[in-house]
């Protein structure tokens, strides 16, 4: 998998807690004060942040959630399946990739507060993506539940939860 090694080295990617690799590429200088944000933020946030995100077929991006909307951008490699569960328990998915005729999108927004995870669709491959978050990402907004926690909350989605969580 020379392409994966090349991308990790070229873009200085590091392991991400949810799975895959990442590198922050942008953090706005300006910020939003806590008093102007919803109550679920613990402090001020930058206007926006951006990362490179590399997911390989031998792992997955585990279900997690953040307060903010997150825009996913497709760059290269395999299409990626993004799975989402709203707090009300509604499940949806979107394929992010370059085959527009089959319904893939090159960019997709995950609404803030949704649980979401992802996996590369082709074996022995990778999905090289970008993610933009606004207000800017902060690990204080990041929740990474284990499998038991999500199964208790959404037992009706057992199959996808077992596929995209760690025990």
**Oligomeric state of the chains present here:** single chain
Question: What is the name of the CATH architecture?
Answer: Sandwich
Q: Briefly, what CATH class?
A: Mainly Beta
- The CATH superfamily bears the name Jelly Rolls
Order of helices and strands: HEEEEEEEEEEEEHH
| Low-confidence spans | none
Structural class: mainly beta
Query: Order of strands in the sheet with the most strands?
Result: 1-2-5-12-7-10
How many helices?
Answer: 3
Distance between the termini: 28 Å
| Helix percent band | 10-25%
User: Any idea how many domains?
Assistant: 1
Q: Mean pLDDT, as a whole number?
A: 95
Gist of the model:
The protein is mainly β.
Question: How would you characterize this protein structure?
Answer:
With 167 residues, this protein is mainly β. It has one domain: Jelly Rolls (Sandwich), CATH 2.60.120. Helices cover 13% and strands 39% of the residues. It contains 3 helices and 12 strands; from the N terminus they run αββββββββββββαα. The strands form 3 sheets. Strands 1-2-5-12-7-10 form a 6-stranded antiparallel β-sheet, covered by helices on one side. A hairpin with a 5-residue loop joins β1 (14-15) and β2. The two termini are 28 Å apart. The mean pLDDT is 95. Residues 7-143 form the DUF985 domain. This is DUF985 domain-containing protein.
């Amino acid at each position: 998998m020379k392409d994966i090694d090349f991308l990790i080295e070229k873009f200085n990617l590091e392991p991400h807690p949810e799975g895959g690799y990442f590198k922050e590429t942008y953090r706005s200088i300006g910020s939003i004060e806590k008093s102007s944000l919803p109550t679920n933020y613990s402090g001020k946030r930058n206007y926006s942040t951006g990362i490179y995100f590399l997911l390989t077929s031998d792992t997955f991006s585990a279900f997690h959630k953040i307060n903010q909307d997150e825009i996913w951008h497709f760059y290269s490699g395999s299409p990626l399946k993004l799975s989402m569960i709203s707090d009300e328990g509604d499940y949806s998915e979107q394929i992010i990739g370059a085959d527009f005729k089959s319904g893939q999108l090159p960019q997709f927004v995950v609404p803030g507060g949704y649980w979401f995870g992802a996996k590369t669709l082709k074996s022995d491959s990778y999905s090289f993506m970008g993610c933009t978050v606004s207000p800017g990402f902060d690990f204080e907004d990041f929740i990474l539940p284990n499998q038991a926690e999500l199964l208790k909350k959404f037992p009706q989605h057992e199959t996808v939860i077992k596929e995209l969580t760690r025990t």
